[in-house]
Hints:
- The chain has helices at about 5, 10-35, 40, 50-70, 105-125, 135-160, 225-230, 245-250, 290-300, 305-315; strands spanning about 180-185, 185-190, 205-210, 215, 260-265, 265-270, 275, 315, 320, 370-375, 395-405, 420, 430, 435-440.
- The protein has about 450 residues and is an alpha+beta fold.
- The protein folds into 2 domains: about 5-160, Up-down Bundle (Four Helix Bundle (Hemerythrin (Met), subunit A)); about 165-445, paralog of FGE (formylglycine-generating enzyme), CATH 3.90.1580.
- The protein is globular and about 65 Å long.
- N,N,N-trimethyl-histidine binds near residues 144, 148, 151 and 420.
- This is Hercynine oxygenase.
- Its EC number is 1.14.99.50.
Amino acid sequence: xxxxxxxxxxxxxxxxxxxxxxxxxxxxxxxxxxxxxxxxxxxxxxxxxxxxxxxxxxxxxxxxxxxxxxxxxxxxxxxxxxxxxxxxxxxxxxxxxxxxxxxxxxxxxxxxxxxxxxxxxxxxxxxxxxxxxxxxxxxxxxxxxxxxxxxxxxxxxxxxxxxxxxxxxxxxxxxxxxxxxxxxxxxxxxxxxxxxxxxxxxxxxxxxxxxxxxxxxxxxxxxxxxxxxxxxxxxxxxxxxxxxxxxxxxxxxxxxxxxxxxxxxxxxxxxxxxxxxxxxxxxxxxxxxxxxxxxxxxxxxxxxxxxxxxxxxxxxxxxxxxxxxxxxxxxxxxxxxxxxxxxxxxxxxxxxxxxxxxxxxxxxxxxxxxxxxxxxxxxxxxxxxxxxxxxxxxxxxxxxxxxxxxxxxxxxxxxxxxxxxxxxxxxxxxxxxxxxxxxxxxxxx
Length: 445
Ligand code: AVJ
Ligand code: FE
C-alpha cells in the first residue's frame, strides 16, 4: 500500500487496519509470555531487562493512557498503577522490587484495557484531532506493543534454560554472487517523512539533505567476516578502537560478541537456549557500537552515517524520489525481509534478493538493526508529538541511531524512515552493522 493510499482510507478501513494491527501485536505478546511459567515471568533474567510480567502490564498501561483515557475520554481503569509502570520512574534493574501485578492479574488487566480500547476505536472519529487523524494513536500504541515484544524477545535470549520458542529456519542465500559493495550516488535526497500516517515524531518532517557519493557494503557484516577480525587479534589491538570503545572493552573484559564462545573447533553461540556452531554467512548480531566501529576501522572503512543509510535504503536514482522501503512502497511481505520473529535468527547474507534497494543494497530492512555513526537528534523542524518522553528526552550525544529493524521487529514497527537508538555499549539488542567508505573524486555515481 502506498502512503497516498493509506491517506485515502475511509474511517471504516482505518478502524479495520488498526484493529488488525493491534490484534497481531497482542497475539505476539501473549505467545512471548505464555511460553514460560509464572515463576519465569516474574524473574529478572538480566539487570538490563524488566521481568516479562512488567513489560506485559506496561503495554496495558500505555494503551489505557492513550487510547482509553486520552482518545476515548473514559474513566481510568487502574490509576493506582500508573507510577509502577512509568519507565521514567523506575530503572529496569529496580522493577522486580515493585509491587507488580502478578501474571494472572496482568493478563486480566491487558485484556480489559483492550476491550475498552476496541470500544473506543469503534466510536472515535478518525479526524478532528491530530492524535486521531488517520488513527495515529492506534498506530502508535501498536508500535509501542511491538517494540516491547522485541524487548521481551531480547529477554528470552538472555534467559537460561531449555528452548521455549520455536520457528522455521530462514530462507537460504539465493542472490547468487553479490559485489562486496555498491556505489550510492551523491546529491540531495528526501530524508524523513511528513506523509507516512503512523510515522513517529522523530521521523518527521521530510527534509532535503545532501550526501557525498559513498560505497556501502552490499550486505551486513557476517559472522565469518567478523571472525577474521576476532581471530586476527582485533580485540587486543588498541589501534582499531576509539578511546571510549577501548575503555569499554578493557573495563568489561569484552573479547567477542555477546553469546559467543570459543571452542576447540571454532566459535559457537547460544541462541534462545540452543548451543550451536556459528554460521559463517549470517549477519553478526549482539555487538555494541564500539565493536562495530572497531571492526570498520580494522577493515579500512567506517560506519555509515544515518543519512547515508537512509539514502541507500530509500533513494531511487531513476525517479529521484525516496521510497517507503528499499523495494518500493508496498508493505513488507515474507519475500522482502526477515521480520516479525518469523524466524528466530538473522537470515544468511543474500537471502532476500526481492528486498534489495534500487542501488543494489540488500537486507537493509530486517535481520539485524544496523549501527550508524550518527548521534540521536531531532530533524530540522522537529516537534515532539504526542509526548516528549518518546524521543526528545533522548536527543544528544549519548545515543547512537540504529536503522532497519531486526528479525525480531514486526513490520508494523519498521519502515525506511524508522529510527531506533541506544547506548553505544549495548549488545543485548539484535544489533549488527555494515560498513561504508567515501567515494574517490572520480567515482561520483
Ligand atoms: C525506541 C526501542 C528505544 O524500547 O526504549 C518503548 C521504544 N519507548 N516504550 C525503547 C519505547 C517507550 C524505545 N526504543
Ligand atoms: Fe514503553
